[in-house]
Structure formats: structure tokens, C-alpha cells
Amino acid sequence: xxxxxTDLIIAGGGLAGATLALAMARVLPExxxxxxxxxxxxxxALPAAYQPSYDARSTALAFGSRLIYxxxxxxxxxxxxxxxxxxxxxxxxxxxxxTRLDATEHGxxxxxxxxxxxxxxxxxxxxxxDSQVQWRAPAExxxxxxxxxxxxxxLNDSQGRQSLTAQxxxxxxxxxxxxxxxxxxQPRHHDYGQNALIANVSTSDSHQFCAFERFTDAGPMALxxxxxxxxxxxxxxxxxTLSDQALADLLERSDADKCRLLQERxxxxxxxxxRIGECSHYPLKLTTVDEPVRPGVAxxxxxxxxLHPVAGQGFNLALRGLMTLVEQFRLATEQGLSLGDxxxxxxxxxxxxxxxxxxxxxxxxxxxxxxxxxAPVAAVRDAGLVGLDLLPGAKRWFARKxxxxxxxxxxxxxxxxxNRESSDHA
Length: 426
Hints:
Blueprint: E1 8-11, H1 15-27, E2 33-36, E3 58-62, H2 63-71, H3 75-78, E4 82-85, E5 87-92, E6 98-102, E7 112-116, H4 117-129, E8 134-136, E9 139-147, E10 150-157, E11 160-166, E12 168-171, H5 179-182, E13 188-203, E14 210-216, E15 219-226, E16 235-242, H6 244-251, H7 255-266, E17 273-276, E18 280-288, E19 293-294, E20 297-299, E21 305-306, H8 314-335, H9 342-369, H10 375-390, H11 392-402, E22 411-412, E23 420-421
Parallel strand pairs: 1-2, 1-12, 2-8, 5-14, 12-20
Antiparallel strand pairs: 3-7, 4-7, 5-6, 9-10, 10-11, 13-16, 13-17, 13-18, 14-15, 15-16, 18-21, 19-20, 22-23
């Protein structure tokens, strides 16, 4: 390994990149890992006490993702500020179809969790600063060329352009950086023709740790409970699907008008909407890369696949993929192979592909099924929702998908510790 400057370079130190770095530090501490991140990082920048913000953005963590973070030794800290999802209510606005999922029916205390992105980032950074993982920040990867048994990666930092050699590059900087295209990967996009508006909202009634998936004639919306896990609160994270014109109109309105329009779309299951925070938005696309690996480089997270957010599957799929990749890296070191060896990365792709295809299909099918407001389609989906409530087998399948327990199971091997399957349980 000494012929390289480092063994593994991770482009991007966000939630996916930082989680991969932590997993490598836990499972393969002998492998030298360097994270290249555009934002500066220093221990002094991490506050001693966490202060949640009303407008903080959040991520839905499936129950299977909790199991992964438990195995990585992060969950005990992370759980201090997560909100459990104990029930999920799925309904079709203006129609009779509905189904309800309850964690107690599956012997768990939660179906999933809602975590503040900033809190997750702080927890990951604190763990990583105590590890052997090296950081190059602020810096960004701008190019890569393949070399014998490895890669040469070109960085831009405060000193200008520099290069590092490594066994493998993992691209974890999302789908908007352009690095994926620079390296020659060809993503496929399906434009849903709509936008996601993201905001935090308050309601007069408590959410009682219930998440809502509401499908309307204008598109789906989701409300995820926020506020910690001790007492049910009145704040939820909103994902609201809107057309271009509806979004433009909404953004020009007052907060009171936004709440009124949201009330009309969602209904009164949480009482009156009393506050809406800062709104952000982005166009909705299903983005996939058919071949996310090649010798020396692999795409992960949103760089490899970006899903519609209303089903809450994107980050959880990425997390399972990261654990699959780490397992293949572990096997590579046992077999004396380079981390970037084509055989290693192809095995990762083969093991992750089924989970990736099934999750993309599950998420995309929900959006397509609940999108058209045509009478025959509406009748079928209403019958389907009622059927889920009446048929235990179908409901269990749906619940396991929502809990992130339907994918291929990756075994996490930690030196000196028990081995455990990361994405299935119970």
C-alpha cells in the first residue's frame, strides 16, 4: 500500500462521504482514508453544545439505517436528538383509500427516525476527528486518471492544483457537482415535471410521532414528525410537490397564505397549520447511473442515484450501498487485491444492484401510481391502500420496505467485535 499517497480518496464529506469514512475507520483501520471536502473542517468549528434551529433540514432514517449506525458505534450519540416515527399514515386526498403502519405491529419502538442533518454531521465529524481519517478541506476533486493498480486524483485547494495517488476514488459529493460527468459517467434522468418544496411547519395538534404520506391530485406530500423522542411535539418536516406555476405562486405569498394553501392540500389531521419556516425547493428528477463503477472509481449516494424524496428512501438506500462497498473492500484486503480493482468494484455493483433496482422501482411506482387523477387509476390505488390494511402479508411487505429491511443484507465485520447483518432484523 505504501506506493500510494493514500489508499482511498472520498470526494465529498457530507453525510454519505463521512459515513463511508467512519465505516472504513471501524472495519478497516489499517486502510488510509483521505476525505476531500469543499467546506473547511476544524475541531474548533464544532460547537460544544448542539442548538437545533427551527429551519434545520432533516433526513428520514429507516429502522435498518439505525441498525447500521448502531454497528458503527454512532447511534447512542445520534439518538440524543432524533424523533421516532412510530406510525405512518398513507392516504389519497379526497378518496377512501388509506393504510396505517404501526411499529408495535412489528415488535419495534419505531418504524424509522427523523434526524437533523446538522446534528448528524456533527456526530460524524466528532467521531472522525478522533480517527485516523485524513481531511483535505477546503478542497475539491476536479479530475482523475487511471494508473497501474490505482488512480491519480487532481485536487484544487488553497495552494492551487495538486495530485494524490490512491488505490481507489469514491465519488460521494452528490449529483450536482459535475465531477460525475467530468469522469465520463452518463446519468439518466426522468423529469417528474414538478418541484419539491421543503420547509418545517407547526400545527395546533401534536403529531404523536406519526408521519403522513398524503397523495393529492396536484402531487404527493409528506409530513415527518420532529422535536425529539420524549414528548410528542407540534413541529413537522414538510415535503410538498408542486408544479412550476404553483411553486412560483406559493413563494410570492405570505406565510399565512402558505399555511392556508397547505391546509387545503393536507387537511385537518394535525389541526391548524400555525407556522411555516424558511422554504427551499428544487426540481424533481429520478437520476440513475446504469454503470456506477469502473476500474479505480465508484459512485455512491446521490452521485449514483437520486430518488423522489416523498418516499424517504434515498439516503437509506445509499447507506446500505456504502456498507456493501465496505464489505467488498474488506474482502479485497484479505485477497491482496487493490481497492480499485475492477473485480472488487464489479462485485460491489452486483451485490448492490438488486437493492438499488427494487428501491428505485418501489419509490418511482408510488409516484407514478399516485400521480394521475384518472378515475380508473384512482380506483385501483384506493383498492390497493385498503388491501394493504386488510392483507397482513402485503402490509408487512410494505412496512419492511418503509423500514429499510427489504434490501440485500450486508455483513459488517469489525476487528475484535461480533459480525452483524446490517440491513435486516427481527
